[in-house]
Automatic annotation (TrEMBL):
InterPro entries: DUF6341 (IPR045922). GO terms for molecular function: glycosyltransferase activity. This is Uracil phosphoribosyltransferase. The chain crosses the membrane at residues 31-53. It holds the Pfam family DUF6341. It comes from the Bacteria. It comes from Flavobacterium magnesitis. Keywords: Glycosyltransferase, Membrane, Transferase, Transmembrane, Transmembrane helix.
Amino acid sequence: MKAFFEGIQSLFVDFLFIPLDGLRSLELSHWFVANTINWIFMIICAVAMVYWIKQLRIFDDAGTENQDTTAHSFFK
C-alpha cells in the first residue's frame, strides 16, 4: 500500500507539477507572465458576473420574477 501512495506522489511531483514549477521559477523575473493563470480566471469570473447581472436585470425589467415572500412553500 505504501508503494501505491509513493506512486501517486511520484506522478504529481515528477510529472504533473512540472508546468507549475516553471511558473514558480519565472515569477522572480516576470511576475505578470507567471500569474497568467490567475489573470485568466479573474477575467472569466468578471465576464460571468457581468453576464449574470445582465440576466438578472432582464428578468427584473420584464417583471417575471416572483418576489413575493410566499413564493416558496416553506415560507408560509
